[in-house]
Design brief:
Layout (H helix, E strand, L loop, with lengths): L1 H6 L13 H11 L3 E4 L3 H8 L9 E4 L5 H12 L3 E4 H14 L7
Parallel strand pairs: 1-2, 2-3
Length: about 110
Amino acid sequence: FEYACYRHSMVVIPIYETLGSNICGHIGKQAELKAIYCDKIERLENILQNVDCFSSLKHIIVSKKFDSKSELLCKNITSAGMKCKEFFSTILILMNGFFSQFFSVHG
């Protein structure tokens, strides 16, 4: 994932949970993050607790498959004006768009 970001001239900023939620919020505000990749569903709670610090955040991509708890968290994130997606569903959407340009069916 990190190399894919570099390939598209994106800057990767690691946010370590051990720094505390207030520091994570500060980093989010200072870096004007547009997207966050979360490796755990629990990190969504941290984003919701500091939602005012992530004013420029538009997309949250979660590596784990959604369950009922994460669906509820994502619903709350969506109501805050952000989009929450599963990593693999995002990859499938991107791959579908990529391959459709080569294999489009004309009627």
